[in-house]
């Protein structure tokens, strides 16, 4: 799935796609969990940031990007 296709999905569809095909890369906790995911696509794929809102008991897709700069806020292991 391409980023433009993912962007057109409903909130529920985005969460389903992430659960089925996404790889969680890290986790950050500041009042709610934030996690970046990688979704495969042609080329390098793309990245999606998901936030868990504990007061609402819900997941929010915060932003998505084809560029890994989205990951700058997360402590990721170096390869």
From TrEMBL:
It comes from the Bacteria. This is Uncharacterized protein.
